[in-house]
Design goal:
It contains one helix and 14 strands. It is mainly beta. It has one domain. The model has no long low-confidence stretch (mean pLDDT 93).
Length: 154
């Protein structure tokens, strides 16, 4: 399945959203999408905010805006689902959204923040999710993790 999910990442920049992008959250009436971008030797999942024309990721207690990024897109071969999780736990099929320079992995999640649903990075070793918002890296112990399963074709 990992190869199928890797094919679901599509390059984007300056707020561009592919037609089949996976909707992951909201900020008021605007839909946000799952993005990822390189930073400080890591590849970090975060949120693509189309009207801001960037992908926001968080690292080092700060939110960072990236003009170039990748967007997670729907696939006919993959079924995505959000599953409740907490304290760094990951459900079966949790999607790896990025990697750390130390060899660790980031997973994709989302959490409620200021009446919005915000995509971010699950950091299993820190037992939490971090979501980028307001210039900061915001920590939550409870979140939803994105999981996938490959669909069996007849």
């Amino acid at each position: 399945m990992s190869e199928d999910v890797r094919k679901a990442w599509v390059p984007g920049s300056n707020g561009q959203i592919p037609e089949n992008a996976f909707e992951a959250g909201y900020d008021g009436s605007e839909i946000m999408y799952i993005g990822r971008a390189p930073h400080a030797g890591d590849v970090i999942p975060g949120k693509v905010h189309p009207s801001h024309k960037v992908c926001y990721i968080c690292w080092g207690n700060e939110e960072h805006a990236k003009d170039s990024y990748e967007v997670l897109c729907k696939s006919d071969l993959i079924q995505f689902e959000w599953l409740p999780s907490a304290n760094g736990e990951l459900p079966a099929g949790a999607i790896v959204g990025g990697k750390r320079s130390d060899g660790g992995k980031y997973f994709i999640g989302r959490a409620k923040h200021e009446n919005c649903l915000v995509p971010g990075k699950i950091h299993p070793e820190n037992e939490c999710i971090y979501v980028p918002w307001g210039g900061k890296e915001n920590r939550y112990d409870a979140y939803e993790a994105l999981a996938a399963k490959v669909i069996d074709l007849p």
